[in-house]
Structures are given as structure tokens and as C-alpha cells.
Amino acid sequence: MNRLSIIVPTLNESASIVACLMSLQPLRGQGHEVIVVDGGSDDTTMLLAGDLADQVLSAPKGRARQLNYGADKAAGSLLLFLHADTFLPEDAGDLLQDVMKSGIVWGRFDVRLSGSHPLLRVVEYFMNMRSRLTGIATGDQAIFVSRSLYDIAGGFPDIDLMEDISFSGILKKIRPPICLNQQY
User: Fold this and answer.
1) What is the pTM of this model?
2) pLDDT for the residue numbered 58
3) What is the CATH number of the domain that holds 53?
């Protein structure tokens, strides 16, 4: 089995970290790893993450630095970068195993916003359509990338904002992404 490393950057995420990490426990049970990389929280984020992750690390503040630090410590052949307020579909483990077996090197999931207001479905539609048309992904879409392509791309650019968009722009110049558009 190929191993998946899920890297979750955090900064004062005590309100959402337990739910996020609890949703990843089935993947841990399948032998995949979860790495939380905190950027200096002054709440209980790191304490709450303790038993729910394989590694809980501290890194300099800044999402790009945190993501790169987590990737450096990861053992998986596929890296998945997940925001602490983002959830994967229930069948994500199977979908990502298929990705690893197929040789697909990077991609993202469709975003599904929480809430039931009809306008949220419209926002989702346009976010996902923009990603399909441009090949650009955001962190809310759970970007995944093979370890080898991550290394070739040089990791996330060390910038304070939109590191995810910049990184996916680098990746798409090498190879187009795949979109896993599963229903939640």
C-alpha cells in the first residue's frame, strides 16, 4: 500500500481541530499519517491535536512555511494539504489510493461549503468551475501531490498569502491536475 500523509496547518484552530482530526481517524486506521503543523497558536490547538495526529509540530508562522515543514517530516508518497476547517469526502481514502496506483501526480477535490443556504451551492459551483477552467486550486479544495512532484516544484513558495494558488500554478506548468468531484 502506498502511504498518504495529510498535513494540516494550524493557527488558533481550537474550535475546529478536533472535528477535522476525528474525521481523519479512519485514514489513520488504514495506515496513513496525519501531521499537524502549528504556527504559534495561543489557544489549545496543539493540546487538542495531541492524540489525534501522528505528529504535532511547531513551525514558524505562515501557512507556506508550515506546509513545507510538514511535508519535510512526512513519510508518504502522496501529500495532501488540508485546512483545519475542511473535510474530505468519506471515500477519500479509496479515491486517493486509486490516485496513487494510477500514477496521477496532483489534483484537488471539489469544494463543498457547510450550510444549507441555496446560495452556497452557487458559490461552490463557481469555485469548482473556476478551478476546472484554470487548473488552479485553493487550500480549501484539499490539494494533493506526489512526493516526487512536490520536490520537483520546490514546495510552496514562501509568501504570506495565496501560497496555494501560487503552488498550483507551478504544478500545472508541469502537469495538469485531476479533480476528484465526489458528492458529500
Assistant:
1) 0.93
2) 98
3) 3.90.550.10
